[in-house]
Amino acid sequence: MNNQFTFEGKQRTTLIGFIILGAICLGLSFLDNTVPYHMRFWSNFLHNTVFFTGISFISLFVLAAFTTAYGGWYVVMKRVWEAYSQFLIVGLLLMLVIIAGVWGHFHHLYHWAADGITDPNSPAYDPILAGKAGFLNKYWYTFGTIGFIGMWYFVFAVPMRRISVAEDTEGTTDFEHHERYRKFSAFFLPIAAFSSAAMIWQWVMSIDSHWYSTMFAWYSTASWFVSALALTIMTIIWLKSKGYYEQVTDEHIHDLGKLLFAFSVFWTYLWFSQFMLIWYANIGEETIYFKERVTNYPVLWYGNLVMNFVLPFLILMRNSTKRKYGTLILCCLLTFFGHWWDFFMMIKPGAKINADHAYHAAHSAGGDHGHAAHGVQGFVSGFTLPGFLEIGIFLGFLALFLYVVLGQLAKASLVPKNDPYLGESLHHHV
Fold first, then answer.
1. Does the pTM exceed 0.85?
2. Which of 29, 375, 395, 408 is most buried, taking the most CB atoms under 10 A from its CB?
3. How many domains does the chain have?
């Protein structure tokens, strides 16, 4: 069986072409200043960076969770998730650009980062944000981002990958490598649970800085996980079409499909918990987030629910569809794009409000009310809906992610031959 993946030149060229396309679209979005302060560029950059970094993080988290739980069925394909986790270093480098923007005031993604926002003597003073300044500040954002992503990658992702690969050649019957891998996994889980929540609050929830939700970390993490599952299924089916992963059977694909179905429903439960229960309670500081999106972004709002719940629910409800590659790939494509759409909806409306607010605050003293589009609701390309530039940027980031992943897959056997749970995985049956 062919267990050594070869990253072919044609594949590299194709991915590099899409990366260049993404870079060009990102550059063109910088030139679009319909929403002030180049917000289309910055919001696109943050959106895709958080989305793909999150997929990388959740892949490492799932590996740690399954290992700690003595799971065995997934082992034959665990190298895919290990490869996904190695994108964390790229995510860190990309987030450094956002951090530089916070310190240099190059963007206005976060209202809490504005000058004078916590100074009672400043006309820009905001008492609500002053109360949150202990957490929402550039120091926490910077050191939290660098510290936590750096820890995820250097302290856990790299050593776990190294141990796993070393087990192929050095593994013995005393299972020393697996025990070390398990210890790293057990330490990672509680650290990851806290740190990922803290950073998703900083990166995304604080864009709407007056708003908060106790469910937001669960909601966004579930969105990451469903995205990772959809991409995993498509990656494995593609590898099988190339003659790899003969050991991965319909039984494994079926279980991945069940997870995709189950966590699409779980995501919807969290969607319901965040929206309907808060709305019913009529808590003003929490409902404003939903009011903005339902009223001014209805296609985003309802499209999110259709793509991420209605379609996967109807398609994956039947057992047989979890074994039909064509149907499964269609569902994965819809779901993967749907959760990218979900993060688009989380980020774009608040980013537009922040840019418009900063623009009007800067020009109100001189009586300049700014460009007509600034602060006016209506269709704004790249905000009301993803435009062609957004799709190009998405494809560019996806190509970058896959370039890193395929490069990692080529460095080791696709099947961890000395993993003690490999036999259980090879004989998996549902």
1. yes
2. 29
3. 1
